[in-house]
Amino acid sequence: MKEVIYKINNRTLKIGIIGLGYVGIPLASEFLENGFKVLGFDTDEEKINSLKKGISYISHISSDFLREHMNVNFDVSKDISMIKNVDVIILCLPTPLDKKNNPNMEFVFGTIKSISPFLVKNQTIILESTTYPGTTSEEIYPMIRKLGFNVGKDFFLVYSPEREDPGNKDFKTSEIPKIVSGHTSNCLKVGTSIYEKIVNEIVEVSSTQTAELTKLLENIHRAVNIGLVNEMKIISAGLGIDIYEVIDAASTKPFGFTPYYPGPGIGGHCIPIDPFYLTWKAKQKGIETQFIELAGFINNQMPLRVVEEALNLLKKNNLNQNKSKILILGLAYKKDVDDMRESPSIRIMEELERFVLKVDYSDPFIPNMPKTRRYKRPKQSIEVIKDNLREYDLVIIATDHSEFNYSLIKESSSMILDTRGVYRSIDANNIFRA
Amino acid sequence: MKEVIYKINNRTLKIGIIGLGYVGIPLASEFLENGFKVLGFDTDEEKINSLKKGISYISHISSDFLREHMNVNFDVSKDISMIKNVDVIILCLPTPLDKKNNPNMEFVFGTIKSISPFLVKNQTIILESTTYPGTTSEEIYPMIRKLGFNVGKDFFLVYSPEREDPGNKDFKTSEIPKIVSGHTSNCLKVGTSIYEKIVNEIVEVSSTQTAELTKLLENIHRAVNIGLVNEMKIISAGLGIDIYEVIDAASTKPFGFTPYYPGPGIGGHCIPIDPFYLTWKAKQKGIETQFIELAGFINNQMPLRVVEEALNLLKKNNLNQNKSKILILGLAYKKDVDDMRESPSIRIMEELERFVLKVDYSDPFIPNMPKTRRYKRPKQSIEVIKDNLREYDLVIIATDHSEFNYSLIKESSSMILDTRGVYRSIDANNIFRA
């Protein structure tokens, strides 16, 4: 362990990062900025080629930064055997759900299997992916031990959950306190020694299970609070009360209240998915997770309520559904990001297409909509200009990107369905809420 | 209206406050401090006598303050006919639930009926009680109109929910922004003119329904977040993870997370009750309030879990249940208050008495436990000293009052069941968690 810590302290430690997405790239950049050598791995050839050319695909990491470091102290590769040349292996891999809403751990466990032949003594494996309590100690630890390593002595196992918040410009990776846990106390020491070189504040917890549950609690808290405010929106609408006015008024209470806002549903890689990792684990112990399931139920029905409201609006205005054209503003799952994973906009689009003539979208962050597993028909973003807006019978504001020209949209659209409260204080007879 | 506002501005307006409890007394004191004359009403003879003698029963209002003002610009009375002599009538009355968990509005509506013969032109009625959306416009307004008043012209109707947080020393009534709404725009103007004399910040909302729902949202948000963390405690315990360590670690996230702590259940006059006012109203419209009901379900079962854990502990330690003595520390529903309304401690006591020989309590704020509707056997608080603590087989920490000597309790109790995490970082073999 002393040797490892010595290498960390004089920055001769080589960092390997597997998974070069919205977690891996910012993490790599922190290590690079702090004088470490980083070797990045990804199975996605496009990402590797883009990085090699010095073209960034993560909004807050500049291409200039990549070009400055590429082939100096940063290199990327698809060749996983190179893992034998690094000291620390940080896994920043997706942990999605399978079709039954159970954890799909194939990326994490599959990667560990594929790097197993190339692991050497005194290496450290760190998992950053969000996962259920017990993943590190009950699943990964036995895999490492089987290879003949003595974890805590000649190999180190760390769990330290990523806390990235895409689109949040207030906090860089280095400014977000880092939860660190180790399989043994030596593992914890190694983990802390590494992260304290790149993050201002380390929060050590007593076990990997605690760290795993900490990350889940953060996202469950968010999923439940969004679920609650979505249900409150439904109730509020039923009572003829403006939910945004209520939330804004409640927010003036100087203690005991934190505002969350309703919307057309939830998306992204975290909030719709992570909570069910705990559901799965709790079920194994015969414990229920009722808040998670209720939040999932409410949040999941929100896109369908938007569709219902849209079709109602067409009907009320005597428009022929089959001939109607609808424009969805915002494909990304949240404001000012380019991420459309699990985005409610996709579901709204998909559903609406069953009823109306044409559904288009506009999103400045997503000029081309790629095919996805769910959605097979690629489209191009429509420009938000007067003539285009006039083409549609209904414009749905699904994502409240700052870039949209909301006054132009208000002036030029025949009807607007606002699911984000962007027109909350505006009374106009072409604006409706869902 | 001009006359009313003129009177407000030169402080010749007389304020009548009906209901002299934890809301009415602090409100009266703000008006008194700002040079208004206040006439207080209550049906409780004990309160009237106590106030006349200048003895305060509200912890943060001093008896000195009362004596200074009594018979100068403050008077109290049981005689409701005196209401004809005031300009503003502020109702600070309880809004509890009936046996079926439906709103019990008899205090509010009954009071309005009883003051009706004494109402005169140009008076203002303000309701401060928490209630369901529609109370002011659908129930109180028709009562006033029937009396022949023209609301908004020669009578004013205001809803402005109290936001008192008993035990919170950080905020005086004047420092908490005040939500104000009126049945008409003139009513709103009158309401704002009155409250801006005593509160630093007024938040006007567009309707009484909006103000009613705002207060409910604040308390629903709290009830649901406590329910969530109580469920997380159950899950966490099942996985062998310390929930307090998890919450403390999650709290280091600088955005998107607000810590709530688990406990033996919820109490007080607000959190267990108010949310169901919305449930009742929503049901009338055929709308469900699933988060409220789930939070109620989880929070309600917490006291029973403490009882179960207590009995398990006795069994595990081979103690004869029927001969066991248990001491409950804290009768109040929360830290550092003297309020035992809806307190989970009472329910824990009541349940435990069915199984064990003796259950006593200690609470520095409640030297004598009065008879309540639920609990018929009055008791006296036991002093927390070594010899007393040794008398009991089990000590349950139900309320984490600051005054308790926790190191003495740890040293002198044979077993402790900690429901508040006061010993969260202490490892001792006589301390257990529930």
Q: Return the string of H and E elements of chain A.
A: HEHEHHEEHEHEEHEHHHHEHEEEHEHEE
Task: Classify the helix fraction of chain A into a percent range.
Answer: 25-40%
Structural class of chain A: alpha/beta
By CATH's scheme, which homologous superfamily of the largest domain in chain A applies? NAD(P)-binding Rossmann-like Domain
CATH-defined fold name of the largest domain in chain A? Rossmann fold
What does this structure look like?
The structure is a homodimer. Chain A is of the alpha/beta class. Chain A has 2 domains: about 1-205, Rossmann fold, CATH 3.40.50.720; about 250-434, 3-Layer(aba) Sandwich (Rossmann fold). Chain A is built from 14 helices and 15 strands. The first copy, chain A, has helices spanning about 1-10, 25-35, 45-50, 65-70, 105-115, 135-145, 185-195, 210-240, 245-250, 275-285, 290-315, 345-350, 385-390, 405-410, and strands at about 15-20, 35-40, 75, 90, 125, 155-160, 180, 200-205, 325-330, 360, 370, 380, 395, 415-420, 430-434. In chain A, the strands form 3 sheets. The first copy, chain A, has an 8-stranded mixed beta sheet, with helices on both faces. Chain A has a 5-stranded parallel beta sheet with strand order 10-9-13-14-15, covered by helices on one side. In chain A, helix 12 links the parallel strand 9 (about 325-330) and strand 10. The radius of gyration of chain A is 24 Å and the shape is elongated. The mean pLDDT of chain A is about 95. At the A-B interface, helix 8, helix 9, helix 10 and helix 11 of A face helix 8, helix 9, helix 10 and helix 11 of B.
